[in-house]
Specification:
The protein is an alpha/beta fold. It is built from 15 helices and 18 strands. The chain is globular, with a radius of gyration of 22 Å.
């Protein structure tokens, strides 16, 4: 009993004196000066402010811009200090389309990660030999697996974060056959990580249920969510006089223009409502963007804009009358997603038009935060758009107020990070 008390005191002192380490691995992690999600940055920032020594390993090849942003020619790694965070930008091979070069991109990250993470873990062992946590985030399962192996070799705890249910989502999206060699390898990796991780963090309640059915015990729900100090509530833009719009009603989409986002469904819905005073603005980039632009060449109610850095998102969203989210009709998406832009819209106080289905649509309908349609149905989506467009300003204002309240209760980044910090201290630091 006395030994246990002393061990707990030592652990608390380690964390308090900045002697406990956490290494965060996510190939697609970004800082706020770049487009894309910043979940790992915000978690790292909070943990470093609360006594942890934090290192982040990510790729310098920005997924939204499809280009390198930090490292110079011939550099394999660039180490930067962002506040108290040690950020490691790793060089990878580039790609533009989802062909074999994408797999080479993932593999190159793994190879660079093994060398540089291994080097840092070795130095840490020589200096202090203090036990820490390696926290690896999917969908890059091979990188998570190599991080897991290194955690075992250096006797650190390992926490896996599931953002997308690889490889099942690849199978459902026709990006791989269940009988293919690569998919079978990914399934073995997935099962191994589920079985031997100290904990599995999920971003969706649906994924938590999915993993529980597969026998995964230590599952922690930590959804996406914005920093509410940055994403402040903003009243709807002024556009109405005597119930008529003095300018086009703005519906904005933010994020990736990929196959899984099924933006062609939104384009077809926009074509159906082209006689209404509505503009659709797509902000972002992806492999399907050029195809979408060609598809819209004869439509004058759809506009495409370049991706913007995270820090500019609040002001951009505040110019919208509504935010639209879209995903392909894939069974896993009905419960296995936690869209960043959805919660950003909640925080700013914007009604949402959703064609995601499952848990996301249920949440919007239950709390009356906007309008919904099943995925892959342009006519139903057009009806949902028309339904929101015809609502009074007061109704849409109340939707935004309810959305902001929900973000404060569940999706506040401060709340999520605080919860994660306590979870690591109480459940992983043993």
């Amino acid at each position: 009993m006395i030994k246990k008390i002393f061990r707990n005191i030592i652990k608390r002192d380690q964390i308090k004196s900045n002697n406990f380490n956490i290494w965060i691995i996510n190939q697609f992690a970004n800082t706020p000066d770049l487009p894309g999600h910043t979940r790992q940055y915000e978690i790292a920032k909070y943990l470093s402010a609360n006594g942890w020594k934090v290192s982040v390993f990510s790729s310098d090849f920005n997924l939204s811009k499809r280009k390198f942003t930090k490292i110079n020619n011939f550099q394999l790694i660039k180490k930067t200090r962002i506040e108290k965070i040690r950020w490691n930008w790793l060089r990878v091979t580039s790609y533009k389309f989802n062909n074999w070069k994408r797999y080479l991109n993932l593999l190159s990250f793994c190879l660079n990660l093994v060398f540089n993470l291994g080097l840092e873990l070795s130095i840490n062992k020589i200096k202090s030999n203090a036990k820490g946590i390696i926290f690896a985030s999917s969908p890059q399962l091979p990188a998570a697996f190599f991080a897991f192996v290194m955690a075992k070799l250096f006797k650190h705890n390992f926490v896996l974060e599931i953002r997308d249910l690889w490889p099942q989502v690849l199978i459902d999206n026709n990006n791989g056959s269940e009988n293919s060699f690569i998919i079978k390898i990914l399934q073995i990796i997935e099962s191994t990580l589920y079985k031997y991780s100290d904990s599995v963090v999920v971003l969706s309640i649906g994924v938590k249920r999915y993993l529980k059915k597969r026998g995964v015990e230590n599952v922690k729900f930590l959804p996406n969510g914005p920093d509410l100090r940055e994403f402040k509530f903003s009243p709807l833009p002024i556009e109405e006089k005597n119930f008529t719009y003095s300018r086009p009603f703005k519906i904005m989409y933010f994020g990736s223009h990929g196959e899984a986002n099924d933006l062609i469904n939104v384009v077809k819905a926009a074509q159906i409502v082209k006689n209404l005073h509505i503009n659709f603005i797509f902000v972002g980039d992806g492999i399907e963007k050029n195809n979408l632009i060609k598809e819209c060449s004869k439509l004058n109610n759809i506009f495409f804009e370049d991706p913007i850095k995270k820090s500019l998102m609040p002001s951009k969203i505040s110019t919208a009358d509504a935010v639209i989210i879209s995903l392909k009709d894939i069974p896993l998406f009905k419960y296995g997603v936690s869209p960043n832009k959805l919660y950003d819209a909640y925080a700013i106080g914007r009604p949402v038009i959703s064609s995601v289905g499952g848990y996301i649509n249920e949440e919007i309908e239950k709390n009356n935060l906007g309008t919904t349609s099943p995925p892959g149905n342009p006519k139903a989506l057009a009806d949902a758009i028309y339904k929101l467009y015809k609502k009074s300003r007061k109704e849409r204002e109340l939707m935004g107020i309810r959305a902001r309240k929900l973000s404060e209760e569940i999706y506040s980044r401060e709340k999520i990070c605080k919860d994660f910090n306590m979870f690591l201290k109480n459940n992983i630091c043993k």
